[in-house]
Amino acid sequence: MSGAWERTHRRYDLVHTVLDEVAKSGWPVVPAALGKEIDEEFGDFGTFLRDVQRRWYQTFDARLDDLLENPPDDLDGAVRDLWRDLDRDQLAARVLLDGHATHPALVAGDAGHRRSLLTATGVDQAELRTPVAPSRGVKPARWWRRSVALSRSTA
Q: Count of alpha carbons within 13 Å of 74, Cβ hemisphere only?
């Protein structure tokens, strides 16, 4: 197996390990032990976040391509449903990304995708995004305030 292929597998496994931890805890916090692995594999937390973001948007865009093959009468509603469904399907990734939404590593990717989506569909991504609250009985408003504080502390 080549070095590049091994690196791809290590990164894939690490992303899934982190997302499993986020899914278990319900919080966008990466355990310290995994933080060291992230730094070793990705170089820094921002590069790791960009990788998770890239994966999420790639999945969204693939589903959007399928949707645009035969656009429904209510394209806006269908795009909103697609976003909501992907949020549900990849809840841990969404919790992590939303919890670190203000991290400088994510801002440019979000802005670029927002422009692309607006151009392709006329739907503004900013209207689709609502923070995904953890499923552990925490009220969304409290969770969102805490996640913003966490993302600022890790920026």
A: 5
What are the tens digits of pLDDT across the range 48-82?
999 999 999 999 999 999 999 999 999 999 999 99
User: What whole-number distance in Å separates Cα of residue 7 and Cα of residue 149?
Assistant: 32
Q: What are phi and psi of 132, to 5 degrees?
A: -85, 120
CA distance 94 to 131: 8
Distance separating alpha carbons of residues 154 and 36, to the nearest angstrom: 14
For residues 84 and 36, the answer to whether their CB atoms sit within 8 Å is no
Distance CA 38, CA 46 (A): 10
The whole-angstrom separation of Cα 12 and Cα 77 is 32
The length of the chain, given as a count of residues: 155
* pTM, rounded to two decimals: 0.81
- Tokens at residue 25, please? 């805890």
Place of tokens 């960009």: 50
Q: Are 93 and 56 in contact (CB under 8 A)?
A: yes
